[in-house]
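tool_call: predict_structure(chain=1)
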Amino acid sequence: MAGAAAHRVLIVGCGFGGLEAVRVLARDPRIDITLVDRTNHHLFQPLLYQVATAGLAAPAISAPIRHVLRHEMARGRLTILRAEVIDIDPAARAAVLDDGARLLYDELVVAAGATHSYFGHDDWSRDAPGLKTLADAFDIRERIIGAFERAERTDDLAERAAWLSFAIVGGGPTGVELAGTLVEIARHTLPQEFRRIDSRRTRVVLMEGSPRVLGAFDERLSASARRQLEAMGVEVRCGCQVTAIRHDGLTFVESGGPPQQLPARTVVWAAGVQASPLGRVLAERAGATLDRAGRVVVGADLGVPGRPQIHVIGDLASATTPAGQGSRPVPAVSPAAKQMGRHAARNIRRRLDGQPAQAFRYRDYGTLATIGRKAAVVQLALPGTLQLRFSGWFAWVFWLFAHIWFLIGYRNRLVVLIDWAWSYWTFARHARVVAQRDSAALPPTDRTTGTSPQAPAPSPRP
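tool_result:
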């Protein structure tokens, strides 16, 4: 290899998969790496809902990419660019950035992730934001805190009830975690902080289209999660199809019944995801096949069939793993993305050594979901086909330490541990600060409530 040009590897996306791919490839002196991401930070998405609900500050679950990969950069073979890849030219082995620049590659790893899916109703996104990025978390946090402030300002009891009603659409882990946390905020954090409203009367409704919440879990754990949510005060509605979302609430059909209205000023979308638009680019440019969610169907080695130099990993990949006499889909979870990132990187190094690529085999270590204080469900995979399932307080403790262990760095782990310990004993949430909007965007009379910004005279709590 003396005097040979470096093997150029372009990695799109610095989520869990892209980060692991960089770390494996950076050990090989034959490889020159370029990492492209739209943001300047790596995000620990499993705890993003904590930022949205003011449990943690953003730096506790995120870190600058250049800092996270500082040791890899010190080797002198890693370039990090904050940009967006908008097109891929497989014939020229080039990626086109949002400013028109072209990056040449010998191997391409696409880890662009996924975004929200509103099942053809993209107009709902304005009134029901999803939770994928820090910007989403800040938006949702402002809506949640703002809802209580709006309720404090109005004398109309029906309007106040609507501001104190929250709807979470989607009963997966994100929806369950958001619903449980909202109840805790209303019942334990805010009761003494408002004069005119009683935050303990807050209504939180979790709506799920399938027959049960946490459908990826064992049925017994799913049932346990529902019982824990209801014990906390969450209204759980399964078999529920949302048909319309507006600024003042939503319309839904439950178990095939007549349309019903839910007056709720705050709606959060946690019902579905769709693949990054780069999936469609690969379908058009590289002949890739897409599944119903827009994910790229990859081969056993995580490569695009017919394009061995293009690897797709993480939430953008529709992959399978051996299971018994057949195969099963690889779940869109962070452990899978990490394993896929490492596997794609090792296959690139194997190809450089003149060895054939190996098939990917996903190692399922289990699934966790927290519901609230002292409430969680855990499903761990054991050797063979055995699984360990438990819920309640011990599952919650297990969830806490598992997430602290996998956080980005030592500082993040320490900050989160301290914040969680403080919150456990005091119920405090000190990240409830929201940015003030541009005054030019705020008319003298609020368009939503029709009230003056000046607060009315105090009245007894309802």
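agent: Confidence is low (pLDDT under 50) at residues 439-462. Proceeding to next step.
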